[in-house]
Amino acid sequence: MRSLLRSGHLVALLVVLVTAVPPGASAEPASAATARLASLVGDVREADGYAYDLRDDTGRTMDTAQIIRTPDGTYLAVYHSTLADGRFHSAVATSTDLRTWTRRHDFGAGTSQPTLAADGAGGYVLAYEKDPDNHIAVRGYVDLEALLAGKAARAYDAPRTLSRCAEGTPDITSVHDGTVELTGHYRARCDTDRQLRATLRDFTTWHAEPDQRLDRALEAWGTSGNIGDRSSLELGGGELVLIEGQRRREDFGSWRTYAYDPATGRADRLTLRTHGASQAFANPSATLLTDPEGHPALLVSVFVPSEGAAPGEAGQLLYWREL
Predict the structure, then answer these.
(1) Is 39 helix (H, G, I), strand (E, B) or coil?
(2) Which pLDDT score, from 0 to 100, does residue 145 have?
(3) Do the beta carbons of residue 29 and residue 17 sit within 8 Å?
(4) Across the beta sheet with 192-201, what order do the strands follow?
């Protein structure tokens, strides 16, 4: 994997990081790993492939899309759309080129913010936020065929233990030996979204706890609104988290994206540049995979709210950089 932190990239990155840094944050990058991630994801205009306003073959928006690649080279996306019933519907779609998507199954009304991971034994684990009584639901599928047909072999609906109002936006970080590890958010004091870590063992035993260290890293950047969706990945041998933070409550145009390094407990605010200079970005996810040209790549999926979006750029944005 060749390095993309050439001198020009590094100088531009440092300029970004020292601009408008609030008192609680540092002008220095949180780590070399977050600096490298910033250099890879910062400019959509330099991507090897991209798609704005991502939709499936039925015209549904693919909001909050998270994407993985199967062993046979098929790309899987899980996402949600708001339909005519006024509710979120999560779905799974397949693609061979990352641009055109065929919807395969709708997981039903009241499902949102889906996340998907292979279980290491040929099957898949899906988690999403479910309403009413917003909570995290986890489903297990024995193989790809069962996933695409929506036929779960195992199911668990997690109790809310950190908030009496809402827990959701899950991200599956690992599946091993019958244990599913996740992150998510909870509505602290039924007021503002903050971060949680959770473990589900054997689809029977659930434990969740606050992740206050991650919260503090984003609060240092003046994030007074919600701290919500996130995606973990390994880059350069270490774990990183790509995460959204809302600078001001009720202001969808103030969503920003951050790179958090658990090893240092610090975060960098990322300045994402699109072709039309959109300003707000939410629900980030990142995946290392093989791109349609057969090259190792880092794929990024991020939602561009209409507030602060450039013409033609609102909706789900997908782009990738070859490594």
Answers:
(1) helix
(2) 98
(3) yes
(4) 167-176, 179-188, 192-201, 205-210
How confident is the model over 112-140, as pLDDT tens digits?
999 999 999 999 999 999 999 999 999 99
* Sign of the alpha-carbon torsion through 193, 183, 220, 161: positive
Most distant pair of Cα atoms in the chain: their distance: 52
Q: Is 217 helix (H, G, I), strand (E, B) or coil?
A: helix
Contacts of 95 (CB under 8 A, 6+ apart): 74, 75, 77, 101, 102
pLDDT digits (tens, 9 = 90+) for 55-79: 999 999 999 999 999 999 999 999 9
Cα–Cα distances in Å, from 125 out to 156, 194, 201, 323? 11, 24, 13, 28
Any idea what the Cα angle at residue 82 is, between residues 76 and 88, rounded to 5°? Answer: 75
Give CA–CA dist 269/17, Å, rounded.
7
Residue 195 per-residue DSSP state: E
Q: Are 249 and 225 in contact (CB under 8 A)?
A: yes
Give the position of tokens 């070399």. Answer: 32
| Burial (0-12, 13-18, 19+ Cβ within 10 Å), 142 | middle
Contact 322, 297 (CB under 8 A): yes
CA atoms within 13 A on the CB side of 65: 33
